[in-house]
Sequence to fold (334 residues):
Amino acid sequence: MLQFAQAEYLLLILIIPFLFLFYGLSLRIKNRRLERFGEMPIIKRLMPSVSRGRGWAKVTLLSVAVFFFAIGLSRPQLGARVKEQQSRGVEIMVALDVSNSMLAQDYSPNRLERAKLAISRLVDRMKDDRIGLIVFAGQSFVQLPITTDYVSAKVFLNSINTSSVPVQGTAIGDAIRLGIKSFSLESENSRAIVVITDGENHEDDPVQAAADAYGLGVRVFTIGVGSAEGKPIPMENGELLKDKDGNIVVTKLNENMLAEIAEAGGGEYVKAGSRDFGLDTIVDELKNMDQKDFKSVVFVDFDEQYMYFFGIALFFLVLEMLIGDKKTGRKLFI
Fold:
């Protein structure tokens, strides 16, 4: 599979159309100056060695050289081989609430972005564990299946917003049940679900879902995001979310609910602070869980291909330099 390590250099290819444009404009200006001395058919007869076709040929060769040079700068790579990797750790499924209430600004800039930052830092600390992402509101979806590809985890994490789930609401129980189904078969007794939410459940029975998970060997931890006094919910148009009666909706942290979920799930409840989001406490608990050996297949040893494209670019550049602007008039045979 071909990939580009520095794909931003591919933008240099956009220079090519301007090379033809500038050369065409220069020819036009040159012809207008020559027209001051007489009619063009006569002037062309007086300059038989001038070749317009060679000029366009030189621009074309230069453009091809720029094209391959840009590809070379972008560092194309090929995956040389795959390797089976052995690791030992636990599987963690992070269930992140993306309902509108997570836009409340108890934290800077808001609950959701602060939670994403904390998860990103958690991924940075991981070494051999597997991680997956579930987003939930009125429904739940697996954003990223269980994986050891931490780079992909951060990419998927950055793409999460309140539009990731089309149905609004907060179905914590549904997210827990989906998390149970998302673990691999080989991770028995080394599985954990970390639910990050404000705890305002409106859809189902999350306590029973957590108890079911614990019965299957999955521990459920909860992180409460928000404040007891609550905050209004800002919308994209700059206004605050209101209910059907026109009253401003205030979303509050339901710590009692989250504590019950964690207790039923054999885990622990932590209230997210402005500095310490609570993941450190949960990570310490996860380290005490049974660790399992996992096997995963990863790409290693990417082969750099840039030198071949630089060589092709150099060839066309030298060829462009060897072509003169004028006709030589030489013949191979007399």
Notes: The longest strand covers residues 76-89. The chain has a mean pLDDT of 83. Residues 144 and 153 are 7 Å apart (CA to CA).
